[in-house]
Amino acid sequence: MKRHVLRLFIWVALLASVLPAQAISIYSIRAAIEDELYDLAEEQIWEKLSTDCTLEERTDLTILLARAMIGEGRFQDAIILCNESNHLLQPDAFLYWKANAQVEGGQISAALQTLEIFPENSPYLPAALRLRGRAAVSDGELKTAEEVFQRFDKLFPNSEDAAQNLLDLAHVSLERGRGRNAQNAFAQLLKRFPDTIEADSGRLLLARELIADGRVKAQEKAADLLRKLGSTETAHPRMRIAAWVELSGIEKAAGRVDASVEALQKAEAFTKETDLRIRQKAAQANLLFDENKPDEAFALFDEAIASAPDQEIAAEVLVQKAEALLELKKLPEAETAFQACLDVTEQTEIQQRALSGKAWSLWGQNRFEESATVFEQTVAKSTGSNEQIEAYIKAGDAWLKAKKYEQAYEDYRRASEIDLRHPLAAQAAYQSGIALLKNGASDKAFRYFQTVEINFPESEFARQAALRRAEILQSQNNPEGTLEEYVRIVEQYTNAPVRSAAMHREGLVLFEMNRYDEALAVFNAVLKDYPDSTQAPQAFYMRGFCRYLQGNAAEALQIFREFIETYPGSNWAPEVLFLLAEHAYNTGDYPQAHRAFLDITDRFPRHELADAALFWAGSALLKQDSFLEAFTLFSRLVGDYPDSALLMDTRFAQGEALTELGEFSRAILAYDEIIKTAPDTLTADRARGRLGDCLFTLGATEPERYQEALETYQALYKKTDIPFELKLQALCKIARCEEKTGQTDAALEHYTEAVYSIGEHKEARSPTAVLWFTRAALEAADLLERQQKWREAVHLYERIIQAEVPAADEADKLIRKIRQEHPKEF
Length: 826
What we know:
The chain is mainly alpha-helical.
């Protein structure tokens, strides 16, 4: 087996080693998520995860990562992350956030299925029940929603969401036509939470339900509720207005005109001016939106816009409608609404909101270049430095997404220069360096990262900048400079995660420079000083590579075995297991190699080495003549890894196994597929040879197959780009087919051509080439003996002796035999 695993390990180690985390707290990450700074939060999470976190911290960070992904709209990524976090704590938390991602991503049925099995003792149960209820409403499963809301009320009557839950329960009951249940829910809401906004909403909704009832007692009860709501000083003005308007309708229907007029006058007291009435109507629309009634809300927004006395008032409402559309992720509609607002308003504040909203709408549609341009326009309408810096940074982010790195750099640079004392200035300066680096300006990026360290020495981005500088030096093939940089980082940034990461990277660079003694010392120091660090597992097994290249293979293998025992779940475990399995294969311990390779695939089916491990497990079975079992493994590889780079090699191995099992027709199909799929590869050339072998074997019972085999070998021989040994083999097999088809002279000609060609390719005398030279010489000599051409046969045997190949002694015996039996010929 030929693999350069060691070199692969070196590069994987160098590229995959992580940046050390800064002094970032989980609290600050959570705050960033709450402020919807998802990009920043995710970067900080990955950075924090690179440290020697406890299992509890790693769990909290992974939960926050899922939340950040959901916030970014990467719902499927969040679902996958939650699915693959079963090795962490709080499985119920991951179950909840998986369902949350499914709901946000529109996978409502899947979310309901996820939440159906939620553990009863989970602290996430209240939130899970609320989420399940809302999902059921979205899916039209109103009965399920009602049952879930009822269960929530029973289990968590004092929850902070209890009032909203009762309001939702009442809504669902009304939708189902269960008026009595709805009234019971309203009654509980008013009794238990009388002074809440939910209670005010409940009073209004209950009153409307009673009005719809039509009976006198119901009307009287509704009127009492509305009077109380309208007279409640703490109630929201739009609620009070609605109460007086509804009461006016009741009084009018009852024929009490004066009372009806009085109620309307009280409503008008809150809306004396037309502008205020329009704004209050917009406020009512926002309330409906908050109550998860978007259709009613948008209808009211449109009504307010239509009745606005001028364009500026209309723009005030229109921007609110657009923001609601953006919140619902109706991005094209939001974009259109924001643009319509920009078309009619001259108010700077409204323009700034509309531009920002439009930019976010474009971002959500992955139209990053347009988004960046609009974020830049937002800066001109922003009156404060905070808004300007945020807009420039977001414009830079958008340009970065669009791979327009020069424009990204300019916007980040502008953001960093507005106010060096601003909390985001360091981030903007650091991102400037990132944009330069992505644009290929590594020298300028190096200087920029240096500036970040100088101007913002206490910032979390200073250490990141230092590490970026080291990476740039390494990419420029400057190992000495890279080492100096890591030493500086260790001296300047003294916290443990930074020191362990820098020391470890120093060891990796020393290893790449073939300074194995020094590298070993550094890796040992990492293990001694920071045994619980993130870098410890890699440092552990890198010691094995050092010992191997120092000439101590036995100790290296022992280190690898100890690594697996110490870190069985490490990300590096599959590579180390592969190395051990490879060693067993190369030393002929095929049973152990088979078990070890198969163990890798079974334990790490998604790892990049899984397909290779399965391939070599099958190859180890071939070496043990377990052909049927080998074929089964190769078939599994084809099914499980259809995009594997080893697919053609696997098909070839299937053909080999089938050939050994005597399934020549099936083997032919395997070889044919290789030739058709990858005709210009060496594997295809080998397949042509093996295809000819199968046809030749079938010729024993189907003589016409010999001609097919001959044509196959001839096609292989005519190729100019195949190895000499393969060409020699094809020539010998052409001759063999010609013998079978009675073309004796042609066979002799091709046998001797194979014999003579070895002299023209002395540099290509591989063991395989020598084998086919010997076979050709023996077959040609035997053919001559059968023709009683004794002297010519002896000449060919003498060529075997002159070539000093392993068959020389046998050739000498055959010569003596001929001379003894036919002395007159000599």
